[in-house]
Write a structure and sequence with these properties.
heterodimer; A: 792 residues; mainly alpha; two-stranded antiparallel ribbon; 6 strands; B: 490 residues; alpha/beta; nine-stranded mixed sheet; three-stranded antiparallel sheet
Chain lengths: 792, 490
């Protein structure tokens, strides 16, 4: 090919690419895609001319860059080779649409390798690997497997005792492993771990965000409800129904708490345009419903028909019409048995005492003010009514302007009255729940209108509740649509029935895919929050359908699904492949799972691991969130809120129970890529940054944990250096140190001890202190090691 | 090295991006003209490919902050954003409205739907209590509030017709800094370093000079859906500018060095068993960088080392201007050392009840330091490669809810504001666009904040439509679905 000259086909390709790139670049560019696809150009002449000019200019720019590249020998050839390679890979992929009904495919026929015969998952995975000429990496040892599975199912590292017991278990591999899995699934830690995943998806936070970032003092009940659901293994279809319509279906008190789903997102309470505030809220919950249950990004369809998925704008507003009547409301739900933990009782008692104290102060002040008023009006104090006193304090009583109170007295009264009525600690224990309700009879039912461009100022046609048109919905459900038209009750119950229907292809596929992602490090559909065309497509569509079908047929229960996955040979695959270089050529992104994905502990799992390994973790469950310490430099007072760390007993609890403030995420968690609660988080990222280093190496939390770790080790194995190093490795890495590691660690201990003793002097206490500190140095190093942060 | 192994601009080392890349490919193939996608991904990644070809080590390639070539020749290497929190009033600073004098005190009713409760109802027109004068060769009108900055007008391009969408502080601040009036989106600085990387690996690439946190938390300098390595680092005043930069009290540098040496040995041993994982190597590198930052950050932050003459230039010798002066001087020291983006905050502009007093004190704090910064940058030859942007989250209304003439107040007005730009290839002495005769709405050549963002990226050498990140089912960018360049200032 001639250098510096773009071939004609490439020219065409570039136009297409450009059109696609600009699909979200505004009207004029969007039109290009349509024209290329053969649609006649619409709109005004001027706009088309404008589009053409833009297209020409952009094309010129592209071509000049292509020519530039052409100056480099072989550049264009390489580009074309890349085109060809990708095209053949794409062509080899199975066709798949998430909107089609779920089939129940049988696993491929048994394979020759006995290790891959036990579990149907493996047959699907191995068949795809073999079809691409790949062999999977070897299986990991029991030691590596148990660390992996313990973190995946409980979010905590295994204890050395658990590890040893499993390694010594004489039973065959599968039996021994199954025993471990059953133990882990039965642990209450399991529900906590999986609740965290779900809270990521539903953008949970304990405050509103925006300016005021107001507290949601009882929202923790939703969080605890989720923990309960996963621990009980409540069927997932039930879980969906409760969150969407727990108040409309017969779901009891949990049903009310579950509708907190619609109160989780950011909320601009002080938006001063009420119509806009309402519409923003509806858009937020519509998007949240779309992504959490359907795995679809509905946001685009708010303004225009989705460009790539079969999601017309009408569908978006039809979905919104199910939700349009919702009123945000706190509803009474008495605290239930398991919510009334000793901790909650204690906190409640203390809050009540504090409230009593404040009420007492107010009563004393009022008595004094009443006396003053009585004297001024020549009455007896008991003749002054409460109402009279209040009016006088407001300055609009009978003797306006002649109240005997100073400004200061009035101000003090107002402040005290406020601290009583707004005492948020008591609200946290009040038997109410952040929930929703339908509007009462007599109130006008809100209309849902299509808003072209998402613009509230130019509403279009009215729409009624309706299901996604891309999915074939069961006739029985479609028939019910008419019955909710114009009704305030029952809309969400119908939506819930549709979402949780065994015939809805999206809900089960999306959820099963999420479970797969959390265990394997990447979903079968890698973009787990986007099942649409823009998403990644499925690497193993038959496997996804097999799992989804099995999930539905098994009563939507999650624990059997976990069991199936973590007991597979696929899950046991090592991260290290002897022939990785050649495998990468065929499948660079490892979508076919020729090795395991390398995974880092999430922010919360890391913090929990520091607590667990240092022997400090307190497993008390539930209740109002606690406040983690934040660095002193950040201060305590923020616009509209204070941050007062809870006492240490509270701060030893799992990260799940941290009070999640939208406007102040605990810095250490933020640095390790915790989920931004303002948007649904489909998957945690793992960026590498220096603030992470500062938190883990110098931060108070990690340094204190390393000290506790050292004290624990001394407590458990005494002063033998070898035994200490051994214990540290077993606790942190689930393995003993190698000979070389033992040597370098002991050398560090000796050097740090010398150095610290030189500084601290001969004083006996200081000498002991130096001894502990030197060991804490080693513990800190271990906390910072890659092996501690990553799952092999 | 084979073609397959080369990293691409969006296909970075964080594992979360794997899915994104995959998603994009499928997305383009779905257009029905399969090959189009590849031409596109080539386009997007061409520069990164070249950089990788020129470089060598896989660890450096995996570093998301490695220097990346711009999309086109950059005019500015760095940007200093002077963020005036609270919403400065344009009609009292850079946009005189003599007509208001004639209509002083005239009342009217504002009742349209979808208008903020704050500005609804009976209103009174209020003229500016400040006097304006023409300055410089360009003859720019500047009020007495910016007497010293006025001496630099020929270096400044003023855009009087900027408008935005939200009239609430946090949402408007989010839009000013991230393009969207909601939380969870990457800020301007995050986009810049995502696109360009950093010029100095020993300092944070993106620095925020503010004590405490604004409404809405760190959204205004966050990385949103981009990986956390692109977020701004807050440098506080005082002895400990970066959180946990130094080892805790119980440990000396020497002891820490020993710990780090052991850590490297343990990590190297681990890496030997776990080859081909660039992320693990990147973590090892991050520890070395962190150790270097323990010296480089305090060095850069040592504003006290500057000669007295320079400190006076920034007003550090006076109480009113000390805090902001120190921030501006620090901003200069940072861009001098290769920091890409510095966000410098000053507040106090939210004058609902008293524009006279409120704006006087807010402007007093910043006028001298801003003039000093512009002059200092120019004298050092840094102004050409440093873009300075001045603006707040919205302008203010020409009318007040109160008829009190002594203390005229002004409310939020996203419909009109003045922003200005200096250095970094901007044509100084330009006055672009105009508001209506009362200053209520942008009227001539209106520019949305998106356009400001597009222009910012352009000056930094980035193309707003090429700088994309796959998230939530689509390619997102700073300017969302629009954005045109403010050509008049280029």
């Amino acid at each position: 090919m001639a250098r510096g000259k773009a071939p004609k086909t490439l020219r065409f390709l570039l136009v297409l690419a450009l059109a696609a790139l600009f699909a979200h670049g505004g009207r004029r560019h969007g039109r290009l895609a349509a024209q290329d696809a053969g649609d006649p150009p619409g709109g005004e002449q001027g706009e088309t001319a404008d589009a053409a000019a833009t297209q020409d200019a952009a094309l010129e720019r592209l071509l000049s860059r292509l020519e530039e590249l052409g100056e480099e020998p072989g550049a264009v050839e390489r580009l074309l080779a890349e085109l060809e390679r990708l095209r053949s890979r794409e062509n080899a992929k199975p066709h798949w649409s998430p909107f089609e009904p779920i089939l129940r495919p049988a696993p491929p026929p048994a394979v020759d390798d006995p290790a891959w015969q036990e579990n149907p998952i493996d047959a699907f995975v191995l068949a795809r690997l073999r079809a691409s000429g790949l062999e999977p990496a070897p299986a990991v040892t029991r030691r590596v497997w148990i660390r992996r599975v313990t973190v995946d199912l409980t979010g905590l590292p295994p204890t050395p005792e658990d590890v040893d017991a499993h390694i010594r278990d004489p039973r065959p591999e599968l039996e021994a492993s199954a025993a471990v899995v059953d133990r882990l699934l039965a642990s209450p830690r399991h529900g906590e771990r999986w609740a965290r995943h779900w809270l990521d998806v539903v953008r949970y936070a304990d405050t509103d965000g925006f300016a005021i970032d107001g507290d949601r003092p009882t929202l923790w009940r939703y969080r605890d409800y989720v923990v309960r659901v996963f621990n009980e293994d409540r069927p997932f279809d039930r879980f969906v129904r409760e969150q969407i319509a727990g108040d409309e279906i017969d779901a009891g008190e949990d049903g009310i708490i579950a509708t907190g789903f619609f109160r989780l997102g950011p909320y601009e309470a002080d938006n001063m345009v009420p119509e806009q505030r309402r519409q923003d809220y509806l858009d937020e919950i519509t998007r949240a419903t779309g992504v959490a249950f359907l795995g679809l990004t509905m946001g685009c369809a708010r303004c225009h028909d989705h460009k790539y998925d079969p999601l017309p704008t009408r569908d978006y507003y039809s979905l919104q019409a199910f939700l349009a009547p919702i009123e945000r409301q706190d509803r009474p739900v008495p605290l239930r048995g398991e919510e009334l933990t000793d901790e909650v009782r204690d906190l409640r008692r203390r809050a009540a005492a504090e409230l009593g104290r404040r009420e007492g102060d107010l009563a004393v002040l009022r008595r004094w003010l009443r006396g003053k008023l009585a004297a001024a009006r020549s009455k007896k104090p008991q003749e002054i009514t409460e109402k009279e006193l209040d009016e006088a304090l407001k300055g609009d009583g009978a003797l306006k302007g002649k109240e005997p109170f100073s400004d200061e007295e009035k101000k003090r009264h107002e402040t005290l009255r406020k601290t009583v009525s707004e005492f948020s600690a008591t609200k946290a224990f009040r038997g109410s729940s952040r929930a929703i309700a339908n509007p009462p009879e007599g109130k006008e039912l809100p209309r849902t209108r299509i808003l072209p461009g998402g613009n509230l100022a130019t509403p279009g046609e009215d729409v009624e509740p309706g299901f996604l048109t891309a999915v074939k919905s069961p006739a029985s459900l479609v028939a019910r649509l008419g019955s909710v038209k114009g009704k305030r009750q029952g809309r969400r119950a119908l939506l819930a029935d549709w979402l949780a229907s065994p015939d809805n292809p999206l809900t089960p596929r999306v959820f099963v895919n999420r479970v797969w992602q959390y265990h394997l490090g990447a979903g079968i559909v890698a973009t787990s929050g986007d099942f649409g065309v823009n998403g990644s497509g499925a690497s193993h569509p038959e496997l996804l359908d097999y799992l989804a079908g099995r999930f539905i047929d098994g009563g939507w229960r999650l624990k059997p699904l976990h069991r199936l996955i973590v007991l597979s040979r696929t899950y046991r695959t090592s991260t290290v492949h002897p022939g990785s270089e050649s495998c990468e050529k065929v499948d660079p992104e490892n979508r076919l799972l020729w090795r395991a994905h390398y995974r880092r502990l999430e922010a919360e799992a890391l913090r929990d691991a520091l607590l667990a390994v240092s022997g400090r973790l307190r497993t008390a469950m539930g209740g109002p969130g606690f406040f983690e310490e934040i660095p002193d430099e950040m201060g305590r007072n923020f616009p509209f809120f204070k941050w007062l760390p809870s006492d240490e007993e509270q701060r030893r609890r799992r990260s799940l129970y941290i009070f999640q403030r939208r406007n102040l995420v605990v810095p250490m968690l933020e640095a390790f890529d915790s989920a931004d609660p303002s948007q649904s988080c489909e998957r945690r990222r793992t960026s590498v940054t220096t603030p992470q280093v500062f938190h883990l190496l110098n931060g108070r939390f990690a340094v204190r944990a390393s000290r506790h770790f050292a004290e624990r080790v001394i407590r458990e194995v005494g002063s033998d250096r070898r035994a200490q190093v051994e214990r540290i490795f077993r606790l942190a890495f689930a393995r003993p140190p190698g000979d070389k590691e033992m040597d370098v660690c002991r050398r560090l201990l000796a050097e740090q001890l010398d150095d610290r003793r030189r500084v601290s002097g001969a004083d006996r206490t200081a000498q002991v202190e130096s001894y502990v500190e030197a060991l804490a140095d080693l513990c800190l190093v271990v906390f910072n090691a890659n092996e501690f942060l990553y799952l092999e | 090295m084979s073609h397959d192994d080369r990293p691409t601009r969006a296909d970075e080392s964080w594992s979360g991006a794997e899915g994104a890349t995959r998603g994009r490919r499928e997305f383009f193939f779905s257009l029905g003209a399969g090959l189009g996608s590849v031409a596109l991904s080539w386009l997007l990644h061409e520069d990164a490919l070249r950089a990788a070809e020129a470089g060598g080590k896989s660890r450096d390639e995996a570093d998301p902050l490695r220097p990346k070539p711009p999309h086109h020749a950059a005019r500015a290497k760095s940007c200093i954003f002077l963020l005036m929190e609270g919403g400065p009033s344009h009609v009292d600073t850079f946009d005189p409205k003599p007509k208001l004098k004639d209509l002083e005190g005239k009342s009217f009713q504002r009742d349209e739907a979808l208008v903020s409760n704050q500005t609804k109802g009976k209103r009174y027109l209020v003229s500016s209590p400040f006097t304006f004068q023409r300055h410089g060769e360009c003859g720019m009108d500047v009020s007495e509030l910016f007497r010293e900055t006025a001496a630099r007008v020929d270096d400044i391009a003023f855009v009087r017709s900027v408008h935005a969408d939200s009239d609430n502080h946090p949402a408007a601040l989010f839009q000013l800094t991230t393009g969207m009036p909601s939380q969870g989106n990457p800020s301007m600085g995050a986009w810049a370093i995502y696109g360009l990387g950093t010029l100095n690996q020993d300092l944070p690439a993106y620095v925020v000079l503010r004590d405490g946190r604004p409404y809405g938390g760190t959204t205004t300098w966050g990385s949103g859906y981009l990986p956390a390595c692109f977020q701004g680092t807050q440098l506080r005043s005082g002895s400990r500018p970066v959180l946990d930069l130094e080892p805790s009290g119980r440990m000396t540098r020497g002891q820490q060095r020993r710990n780090l040496d052991l850590l490297f040995e343990i990590n190297r041993e681990h890496l030997r068993r776990m080859p081909r994982h660039p992320e693990l190597e990147a973590r090892i590198a991050a520890y070395e960088l962190a150790f270097r930052m323990q010296s480089s950050v305090p060095e850069a932050a040592a504003v006290g080392d500057e000669p007295e003459r320079v400190r006076r230039l920034y007003g550090i010798d006076q109480d009113a201007t000390r805090a902001f002066g120190q921030r501006c001087l620090l901003a200069r020291r940072l861009v001098e050392r290769g920091v890409r983006f510095v966000q410098v905050w000053s507040g106090g502009w939210d004058s609902h009840d008293n524009v006279l007093g409120g704006h006087r004190s807010a402007a007093r704090r910043v006028d001298r330091p801003i003039a000093g910064l512009l002059l200092d940058l120019k004298q050092r030859g840094l102004l050409d490669e440093t873009l300075v942007v001045w603006g707040g989250e919205f302008g203010r209304t020409p009318d007040s809810r109160s008829a009190d003439k002594k203390k005229p107040g002004r409310d939020h007005n996203p419909g009109a504001m003045t922003m200005w730009f200096a250095g970094g290839g901007v044509q100084g002495g330009r006055i672009v666009g105009a508001t209506d005769e009362l200053g209520n709405k942008a009227a001539e050549k209106p520019y949305h904040l998106r356009d400001v963002h597009a222009t910012f990226l352009h000056l930094m050498g980035l193309d707003q439509e090429e700088l994309v990140f796959y998230h939530g089912g689509r390619f997102k960018r700073l300017t969302d679905t629009g954005g045109q360049l403010v050509r008049e200032i280029l």
